[in-house]
Every structure is written in structure tokens, then in C-alpha cells.
Specification:
By secondary structure, the protein is α/β, with parallel strands linked by helices. It folds into 2 domains: 93 residues, no CATH class; 75 residues, no CATH class. It is 37% helix and 21% strand. The strands form 3 sheets. A 4-stranded mixed beta sheet has the order 6-7-5-8, with no helix packed on it. Helix 1 runs antiparallel to helix 2 and helix 2 runs parallel beside helix 4. The relative contact order is 0.10. The structure holds zinc ion. Zinc ion (ZN) binds next to loops.
């Protein structure tokens, strides 16, 4: 039977374990976890500041090595949101952290250097399909909010088109809403 993965909070607590093996395993697991470990490592949660800073620095290095060069071409497969350069504030400096702008995930990625197209087409199968540099997302199955650069209506009813407009309009992410406004203004 596979063991349930431990939460970042549980792992953060293990950093103060009196035995070095659980401390070592917790540290390595948090580093590999990347972005989601960050929230569990804030010193305000009762962790000694030095332990938290040390692991935050290692997490920052780990995500930088993995993603710094191409983070703009990556999407989070869970949120379909672009990766972002977050800043983690330490008392004396801030560190970069590359991960999903929405959920901080940095472990799993979907490469997409080109556009993300929200496609309304009953013939599309599955949730998304890479097509060259672009990613075609089946907007009839994977409903917004998610990141998309344009919409393609191939085969959909007026009601389905209207539903996509409403779902995109209700997006809680201010940055995505602003980007869509910009795209609409640039439409010929
Ligand atoms: Zn995400």
C-alpha cells in the first residue's frame, strides 16, 4: 500500500524533530515539492526562522534550476495558469520562486511556448491537446477560469458561447481579466 504524501505543514513541523533523519527527509521532500512548501515555511507558523530561511533558499534554488530559463512557456496542468516569478521575502533580501501564479505548483508542468486557445468544438476529445507550439483547450469540458490567449468557435451553440463569456467574465484573477480586456480592445 502506498503511503499518503505528507502535507507541507506536517513536513515543516518535522524540521524541528530532535532526530536528524526525519529532519533530513522533511527538508529534502519540501525542496522537491517546490512552490507549495513556501506557505508552510513562514516563520510566523512557529518554525525557527533559521530553519525556514534555509529551506526557502534551497526551494528557490531548486525552482530556479528547473524553470528560470523557460518559466514563461510553462503552464500549471491543474489550473492551466502560466508560471510566474514569485518573490519570497526574507528579512534581508527576496528570493525568486518559479511556479504556477495561482497555486505555486512547480513540480508538474505543461509546456506551451505559443498561444493557449480556448476551443469550442464538439468534435474535440479530452481536455486539451498540444498542437505545435500552441495548446488547444477543450472549453466545452475544461471550463474557465484558466489562461487563454484567444477563443476559437468551431462547433458550438449560442448558449455554449455565452456560457464561456460569462465564465471568463467571472474569473476572480484580476491579471487574467485585464489581459482579456486588452485582447478584446486589440481585436480588429
Ligand atoms: Zn496551479
Amino acid at each position: 500500500m502506498r503511503r499518503k504524501p505528507q502535507s507541507p505543514q506536517t513536513l515543516a513541523r518535522l524540521l524541528t524533530n530532535p532526530y536528524w533523519i526525519p529532519r533530513f527527509i522533511a527538508r529534502q521532500t519540501l525542496i522537491a515539492m517546490g512552490g507549495p512548501a513556501v506557505r508552510a515555511l513562514t516563520p510566523a507558523r512557529g518554525l525557527p526562522e533559521r530553519s525556514a530561511w534555509d529551506v526557502l533558499e534551497a526551494v528557490s534554488k531548486h525552482t530556479s534550476l528547473q524553470h528560470a530559463e523557460r518559466y514563461r512557456t510553462l503552464l500549471c496542468p491543474d489550473c492551466l495558469t502560466r508560471f510566474h516569478e514569485h518573490k519570497v521575502a526574507l528579512p534581508d533580501r527576496s528570493l525568486p520562486l518559479y511556479g504556477c501564479r495561482n497555486c505555486f505548483n512547480s513540480e508538474t508542468v505543461l509546456g506551451c511556448p505559443g498561444e493557449v486557445v480556448a476551443v469550442l468544438d464538439h468534435k474535440l476529445i479530452g481536455y486539451w491537446r498540444p498542437a505545435g507550439d500552441t495548446l488547444r483547450v477543450n472549453a466545452l469540458r475544461r471550463h474557465p477560469p484558466f489562461h487563454f490567449d484567444r477563443v476559437e468557435i468551431v462547433d458550438a451553440t449560442d448558449k455554449e458561447v455565452a456560457r464561456l463569456v460569462v465564465q471568463a467574465g467571472n474569473d476572480p484573477d484580476a491579471r487574467r481579466r485585464a489581459r482579456r480586456r486588452q485582447l478584446a480592445e486589440n481585436e480588429p
